[in-house]
UniProtKB/TrEMBL annotation:
The organism's place on the tree of life at top rank: Eukaryota
Record-linked InterPro entries: AB_hydrolase_fold, HAT_MetX-like
Protein name, UniProt field: AB hydrolase-1 domain-containing protein
Organism for this UniProt entry: Fusarium sarcochroum
One Gene Ontology term of the molecular function aspect: acyltransferase activity, transferring groups other than amino-acyl groups
Length: 221
């Protein structure tokens, strides 16, 4: 995207989302804001910036604050893209050529962090159609990023969020209920790649919405 900013704040995202949702839906109350990963962090900001609008939130594979370890991890794939031979920041607004090498270097640096060591050892990539790790690598760390705009990608980088950090945060939030997704899929567990993970998340959200005593309690109840 031409002249896309290299840095965005969550407040910027929520302001844009608020304007879009309110103008289209013509509503003043949102029963539920649900978000995964960076979308989950946006959900936190929704509750802070518009508490009069948001009744409840469901946050999946996310955290209220990006950890120092997360920031440092992201410097790896970020540097792989920015220092690639075919990425030229000074000409990013004037050229239509994409830095394919840089995008694939980004994917390679990021790929091992998507899931977990157990995921690789159990060869779970076979459950989504890849016969070998090499076949998965060619897509996940290769062609998967070919269609991305490099500067858009740099503004969207994120890593999995450690459940321990989320548990600690939940203790500081009134009426919060914390649940760990029992999965080897790491950050991808929140994307529905694995049917068991998908069912677990759907059931938890269903209990929350129904106000079931064994699930999450809704605010004010």
């Amino acid at each position: 995207m031409e002249e896309f900013p290299l840095s965005l704040k969550y407040q910027d995202c929520v302001r844009a989302q608020y304007q879009l949702v309110m103008s289209l839906l013509k509503t003043r109350v949102l029963d539920l804001v649900i978000g995964f990963s960076m979308g989950g962090q946006c959900a936190y900001y929704w509750t802070l910036m518009h508490p009069e609008v948001v009744r409840d939130t469901v946050i999946i594979c996310s955290s209220a604050r990006t950890s120092r370890h997360n920031y440092q991890f992201l410097e790896g794939p970020k540097a792989a893209l920015e220092f690639s031979a075919d990425y030229n920041q000074s000409s990013r607004k004037t050229t239509s050529l994409k830095p394919t090498g840089g995008l694939r270097a980004f994917g390679k640096a990021y790929s091992a962090w998507l899931t977990s060591p157990q995921w690789f050892e159990d060869e779970l990539y076979k459950t989504i159609g890849y016969g070998t790790l090499s076949e998965w690598d060619k897509v996940a760390a290769g062609t998967n990023y070919d269609d991305w705009d490099p500067d858009d990608l740099l503004a969207m980088i994120d890593q999995y969020f450690r459940w321990e950090a989320s548990k600690k945060e939940s203790l500081m939030i009134p009426q919060a209920k914390f649940k760990v997704i029992p999965s080897a899929w790491g950050h991808l567990s929140g994307l529905g790649y694995d049917k068991k993970d998908e069912s677990y998340i759907d059931e938890a959200i269903s209990k929350f919405l129904s106000g079931c005593t064994s699930g999450w309690k809704r605010n004010g109840q």
